[in-house]
Amino acid sequence: MTGTRPAVLVVVAGTGTDVGKTWLAARLLEHWRGAGLSVAARKPAQSFSPGEGPTDAEVLGGASGEEPAAVCPPARWYPVAMAPPMAAAALGRPGPSLAALVAELDWPAAAVDVGLVETAGGVRSPQADDGDVVDLVDAVAPDHVVLVADAGLGTINAVRLTVAALAPGPDHRHPDVVLNRYDPSSDLHRRNLAWLRDVDAMTVTALTPDGLGALAERLSSPAVQGTRTILPSLPPTAKRS
After folding, report:
1. Of 80, 62, 78, residue with least CA distance to 70
2. Integer distance in angstroms from the first to the last C-alpha of the chain?
3. pLDDT tens for residues 110-156?
4. DSSP 3-state assignment of 102?
5. Are 122 and 149 within 8 A, CB to CB?
6. Rounded CA gap, 16 and 25, in Å?
7. With contact defined as beta carbons under 8 Å apart, do 202 and 177 qualify?
8. Least confident piece of the model among 177-186, 197-206, 228-237
9. Contact 137, 13 (CB under 8 A)
10. Hey, CA dihedral for 180, 196, 202, 157, is it positive or negative?
11. β-strand 8-14 against 144-150: which pairing, if any?
């Protein structure tokens, strides 16, 4: 990464596609800006179906106050609805390497309070020819990982599998799980939330207005007292495991 590392760095990942990662990321950015914090959003690569609404970079840029090209480099826009390296191949373009995606995370020269990186697809979805979301998270080394999941049927299985992939060892911190589209009147949603909290001992937020505010404050609270570190440039040929 280049530029100045944000005082707090947050990665937003998901149990799969269309679980609401971009929507949640935009709401977090808006909340932080409303609280007077400076923010920056980054999407290392994005693939999309042309003509089906704004891209993730456009949504995130609208929430963070940045140009979409600053959120995701134009060379990493792939107008095919596939995982980024697969979309690149379908377009006849070279696929990105993990080292290149990390090197292109160009943060502002003046440090921001909170930086947010949104990934594509689920945590085992390829982000580069040589890495998936788990590899990207390891390379970026964020302060927090937010895992977005649906609140309904199949949630416990999806969350358990995803958390195991993100935190394979006892020394790894588990992500903050967010149940999107949560309906407090749904017995299933309430039971899923209780199971993940009480049986699996996970940190889980039900995405209600109050839940969103508490999550945003918890993720950004170190920004007030955090230190800021200048990051060196990563050579394009640097190897990432």
Report:
1. 62
2. 16
3. 889 999 999 999 999 999 999 999 999 999 999 999 999 999 999 99
4. helix
5. no
6. 15
7. yes
8. 228-237
9. yes
10. negative
11. parallel
Q: Is 138 left (phi over 0), alpha (psi -120 to 50) or beta?
A: alpha
Contacts by residues 59-62 (CB-CB < 8 Å, ≥ 24 positions apart): 59/22, 59/23, 59/26, 60/22, 60/25, 60/26, 60/29, 60/116, 60/118, 62/26
Length of the chain: 241
Which domains can be identified in the chain, with CATH numbers?
8-224 (3.40.50.300)
Determine whether 21 is an active site residue.
no
Which of the residues 5, 27, 31, 43 is marked catalytic?
Answer: 43
Instruction: Enter the tokens of residue 192.
Output: 């899923």
pLDDT digits (tens, 9 = 90+) for 201-226: 999 999 888 889 999 999 997 533 33
**What does the pLDDT read at residue 170?**
57
